[in-house]
Specification:
Length: about 900
């Protein structure tokens, strides 16, 4: 018989992991009672990742308690430089204690000693008992404990990427044996712990010295072999070196009760886990913990694990099954279906390089090639039928599988098919429920709305089968969540109806005048070359202007300018620093100009022509689920990010032209929509009056704020009033206003105070928005789009202030986003009937841009104003400016 594997005991350095988790996970997570939980969440993510990786037989968690008396007595400044622990982190340690208790994981604390010493003692006991020991920590000090039975589990990056070191791994990473780690730290010191070490000795030098001399004693026995500064530093800092090593040695003989033989994992009760994790609101983590014991509590909470996907049909059987299901649905039987798909890297033997997963009430099928594509087309068309639900992960991308964003490629779907489709978009539904999620990947949707992770498939075929089954299962819980949250109208009346508009707009694309862009590129390169020459002349030498390190060397060492800001990588040369330095020397200003020109040339002039597709047009993506506000974002290329207020930006925009010869570029732009929404939502009588009279709003504000007649408002005062107007919309405070206007803080505060005296209804409204958002946890638009703002409940004052500004702005910016989305759908529906040769090409927040036949410009302009100005009724008029010209720059 083979010998049984030794017991495997994991020891968690609780402080190390809690600190890493706290700084890795955004500080916006809270328990239902408002207590911060981001560190607990990250800690559990690391722990569960580790359990899945290592499958330990027992787990122990060690925490620091009190000051490390032994080390402070030896080295008074030990860890003295470390800042006081954030209150938001401190309050989470009792939570993780309770979580460990619920999971029946022993927690060890020894007053006067650190977690490292507890790890060292447990690993020594494991070595003596013949147990394997895994020490989970982010500190390099622990590497001295690696042995035949003890391995070190380090968190490499973030919170779930781990690497395991045995003695050979320690040597590979540091160039020294585990037993040499204290000597290594003694020589190089440790700034994190305020251990001095030897000046001038860094990691590489420490490694070389220990590889040659073995120990610090060996080094000091051979001082005669050292030379110059190295000899001086090592000789003169002998006491500091040995003291640093003594402090770095981890104790391995602490006295505390822990029966290694008796402990085991998992050995918790389901009830305790459900109760404790329920307090934290961490359902997904709870299900993962419960799954470790296959508990009864886990089954109803994690139906995702029980999806009936694995007995799926393929080949002819799949074709027959899908055809039977769809024929019945097309015949009026209705039905609920899940549709997933993926594009395969290479064309397969069956035709088109696409694979489709199909889920119906009676089973799951997977199709490939032409039959897969035809099924996708059929289901998109079927989604228009009453009584049929077709759930997909991303409706626009699903449509684009058969309606590509390139007019040079054939489309299997017509425009009518696209606009009639009514796919249930799981991603958009989840976005309407919570816009703060980074990615609405299938696993997130499953964990959040099906109560657990998706089963793991072994192949692509498995994956599309699983996702199709999950999408079908998501229809009911997502709809119920939308109803319960009050967000169903946002999904069904705003976001989902926009999908066909975006699909058509992306297929249409935008035309580019490449010849003009090439000319601009040549001129810009000439300007860059001239700047480079002037920069080199002022610096007195050539250097890499794109290297912040070399720029810092020139500015602060060669020219002797005073550094303003230091980062972990050296002295900062960011735009703010260079702008300030430019007041004293010409060179920083020239570097700023160089950076701006080089960025624009690389981002637009050089990149845009290469991004054109088969029809010669740019086909950027317009994304609905990226921003937290409800606004669209643009990518590949980002057409919303072209500078609009600079001459250079206008030169770039001049290269965007209509789609066809004889067309005009038409732009329709809402005028001051967010300020008009502030007037409507606040109901402030003076603000409403200012807009309803049609007067110059910024001049009217200046008159009221500065207490002068309108005809005495100077351009400078109007400019200041304009800054206050827009600052108020974005929740700007006095500091921000003082920075933007370059005025003293006190003067900025006086302007804001005067503004709220002039428009008292605005102050009352904004205060009410913040109060309501703090109470509810979210702010919402006039259409009910919610933006969850967890920062409102954190204890950190700066983060809470950010949350308050966000709450103030969301009703205006989010409502503006909703309005233009609804307007886009209505504009497109009317254009398709009245002016089918006019095409939407670009959307930039409050602006729509079209290519329109010259003889239809007047009619299309009237249509745009009619739709956009009357899409919603407000207390103040919505005003749309429509202009046209031969290119984008001329149309605005």
């Amino acid at each position: 018989m083979s010998e049984a594997a030794p017991k495997k005991i994991a020891v968690i350095d609780g402080n190390s992991l809690m600190h890493r988790a706290y700084h890795a996970v955004p500080p916006t997570m809270n328990a239902p009672d408002g207590t911060p939980t981001n560190a607990v969440f990250g800690f559990l993510s690391m722990l569960l990742k580790f359990i899945d990786l290592a499958h330990p037989d027992a787990i122990v968690c060690a925490f620091d308690v009190g000051k490390p008396e032994f080390r402070i007595k030896a080295l008074e400044q030990y860890k003295a430089q470390r800042p006081k622990m954030d209150d938001e982190l401190r309050v989470q340690f009792p939570l993780i204690d309770d979580v460990m208790q619920s999971m029946n994981i022993p927690v060890v604390k020894v007053p006067g000693w650190e977690g490292d010493d507890i790890l060292g003692t447990i690993s020594a006991r494991c070595d003596a008992a013949g147990y394997d020991c895994l020490l989970v920590s982010g500190d390099k000090d622990v590497c001295q404990l690696a042995s035949e039975h003890t391995k070190i589990v380090n968190t490499k990056k973030g919170i779930t990427d781990v690497v395991i070191f045995d003695p050979a791994g320690v040597f590979e990473k540091y160039g020294v044996e585990p037993a040499q780690i204290p000597d290594y730290l003694g020589l190089m010191g440790d700034t994190a712990d305020n251990i001095p070490g030897v000046p001038g000795i860094g990691p590489k030098t420490a490694t070389k010295l220990l590889q040659k001399y073995g120990t610090m004693e060996g080094l000091y026995e051979h001082l005669d072999e050292l030379k110059g500064k190295q000899l001086e530093h090592v000789r003169d800092n002998r006491d500091a070196a040995f003291l640093s090593r003594d402090v770095a040695v981890i104790k391995r003989d602490l006295d505390f009760p822990l029966d290694l033989e008796a402990i085991s994992f998992p050995s918790f009760t389901e009830k305790a886990v459900v109760e404790e994790f329920g307090k934290l609101g961490m359902k997904a983590h709870m299900n993962k913990v419960l799954a470790l014991v296959g508990g009864a509590e886990a089954a109803p909470a994690a139906p995702a694990a029980q999806l009936e996907w694995d007995d799926y049909a393929t080949g002819d059987e799949a074709l027959a099954f899908v055809d039977e299901c769809l024929a019945a649905a097309e015949g009026g039987a209705g039905g609920r279906f899940g549709l997933s798909w993926l594009r395969q890297d290479q064309a397969n033997l069956f035709g088109a390089n696409i694979m489709v997963g199909f889920a119906a009430e009676d089973g799951v099928a997977v199709l490939e090639g032409d039959s897969a594509l035809s099924t996708l087309v059929r289901m998109v068309r079927l989604s228009a039928q009453v009584g049929v639900d077709v759930a997909v992960h991303d409706a626009k991308l699903t449509i684009q599988a058969a309606y590509p964003a390139d007019t040079a490629e054939d489309a299997q779907l017509s425009d009518d098919d696209v606009f009639a489709s009514h796919l249930f978009d799981a991603t958009l539904a989840a976005y309407a429920l919570d816009s703060s999620v980074a990615e609405y990947v299938p696993n997130y949707l499953s964990e959040t709305y099906l109560g657990g992770e998706l089963p793991k498939g072994q192949t692509d075929v498995d994956t599309v089968a699983i996702e199709a089954a999950a999408l079908r299962a998501l229809i009911e819980p997502l709809r119920s969540a939308l109803d319960e949250d009050g967000s169903r109208d946002v999904y069904e009346k705003i976001d989902a109806p926009l999908v066909p508009v975006l699909a058509r707009m992306e297929r249409t694309g935008a035309a580019l005048d490449v010849a003009t862009l090439d000319e601009l590129g040549a001129r810009t390169q000439g300007q860059i070359d001239e700047l480079v020459g002037r920069i080199y002349d002022l610096a007195g030498e050539e250097f890499n202007i794109d290297s912040p390190k070399q720029v810092a060397h020139i500015l602060f060492e060669v020219l002797g300018l005073k550094p303003l800001k230091k980062t972990s990588r050296g002295y900062s040369t960011n735009a703010k620093v260079l702008t300030e330095l430019a007041k004293d020397h010409e060179l920083p200003g020239l570097i700023l100009q160089y950076r701006e020109l080089a960025k624009i040339k690389g981002t637009y002039i050089d990149a845009l022509p290469a991004m054109r597709k088969g029809d010669g047009r740019l086909h950027g993506a317009f994304n609905e689920t990226v921003t937290t506000t409800g606004r669209l974002s643009s990518s590949n290329p980002n057409l919303q990010n072209i500078p609009v207020r600079t001459d250079f930006g206008r030169h770039i925009r001049a290269c965007f032209v209509p789609l066809r010869e004889g067309d005009e570029f038409v732009g329709a732009d809402y005028s001051q929509i967010e300020l008009r929404l502030l007037a409507h939502l606040s109901g402030d009588e003076h603000l409403v009056h200012a807009f309803c009279t049609g007067a110059d709003f910024h001049s009217a504000t200046a008159a009221r704020v500065f207490g002068i007649p309108v005809d005495q408002v100077t351009p400078e005062l109007r400019s200041r009033a304009k800054a206050v107007n827009f600052g108020i919309v974005y929740g700007q405070q006095a500091f921000g206003l003082s920075q933007s206007l370059h005025i003293p803080f006190g003067e900025a505060q006086e302007m804001i105070d005067a503004y709220f005296q002039a428009y008292p209804g605005v102050r009352t409204y904004l205060d009410g928005v913040v109060d309501q958002a703090t109470q509810n946890g979210y702010a919402e638009t006039m259409f009910g789009r919610k933006r969850h703002i967890p920062e409102l409940k954190v204890r950190n004052r700066q983060q809470r202030a950010f949350g308050e500004r966000t709450a103030m702005n969301h009703p205006m910016q989010g409502s503006a986003a909703d309005i233009i989305k609804v307007a886009m759908r209505q504009v497109e529906e009317r254009l398709r009937v009245e002016y089918p040769e006019a095409h939407l090409m670009v959307q930039v927040h409050d602006e729509l841009d079209l290519s329109v036949p010259a003889d239809q410009v007047e009619g299309v302009s009237a249509l745009l104003k009619d739709v956009m100005e009357h899409v919603v009724e407000l207390k103040v008029p919505l005003v749309v400016d429509v202009e046209h010209g031969p290119n984008w720059a001329e149309a605005h």
